[in-house]
Amino acid sequence: MTMQNPYSQYQNNSIMTSSPEELTLKLYEGCMRFIKEAIIFAEERNAEKSHNSNLKAQNIINEFMATVDRNYEVGESLYQLYDYMNRRLIEANIGKDVEILNEIYGMAKELKDTWQQAMKLAKKGK
Length: 126
Prior knowledge:
Blueprint: H1 6-16, H2 20-43, H3 47-67, H4 73-95, H5 98-125
Helix pairs in contact: 2-3, 2-5, 3-4, 4-5
């Protein structure tokens, strides 16, 4: 039997016990973290690490695109926003463009902040 290090075990437990709303928040935070890493690595001229971090951010955006309910206007609008963010991340990855990465970081932060506010409002409403 292999032992998990305590931090990995904590992370796994945190994910397994989170609500869907909390998981969405964690995904936004992860996306922001990976974009920030891609920026740092691009500035350091470490193309491989920047590429890998960018791909992780793209994977999160792709997950949002796959799960958004496009049967509603707000869902379709979110899908279009995620699609734009994904295309811009691809463009940034090709050119290691820090300006584009900063743009998408700002968008991800705004989405995360909005999601946090919605979670607070939903808790007040219960």
